[in-house]
Amino acid sequence: MTRIAYDSRAATAFEANRHLDEEGLAAWRAAVTRHLDPRPGTRLLDLGAGTGMWARMFTRWYDAVEIIAVEPSDAMRARCQCPRVLPGDAADIPLADDSVDAAWLSTVVHHVPDLTAAARELRRVLRPGGTVLIRSAFAGRHRGITLFRYFPEAVRVLDTYPSVRDVEVAFATAGFGTIAFEPVPQVTAPSLRAAVAALRRAAHTPLQLITDDEYAAGLARMRRAAETGAGTEPVIDTLDLLALR
Description:
7 strands, globular, 11 helices
């Protein structure tokens, strides 16, 4: 069960507001490549693939890698840009034992009700030596993310997410250990003005889980800031990459 309902409205908002371009994800490409070792025949599981931004990017970046997307939401799968997307979730991955070389989970772990069960399931489908790459905003690590500057009330939602330590402890039960942890920057929008214009509340779990008044106040702060000189600067956010093996 996810924290929010990914219905058609949310899936449409997610696709409109959360898909980034290749230039904006350049640092992520470098970070993933360091840990993925994308050789011909590599099979990469995109778990919780959503509307398929990462599956699409991986296909562009690594033409020799087979991408398998798994997504629990019917609405998300209907809009997914990956040609192969299967129904399933972190506790029930519809793949055979020892069938993938690596797994990618982007902004997913806070929706997983049982991280220990997810770790066991990932251990099952990964081949020996396989890597799990987790991209996330973790509890206590909001300072590099622009939205929380304007919607500080949403920090209380983020603080209910798993911490880095929570994830490490859960995955250790399935024999995983941390091989890397690094903050990775991305260009989320060409400017704050563009970010305000494109913002969709339904695309962001923390914004859905604050009150309407809190959302309105944050949106007003963001709009005021966008009208200043700083509103023309690129919006650069930093999320974390946790790599386990």
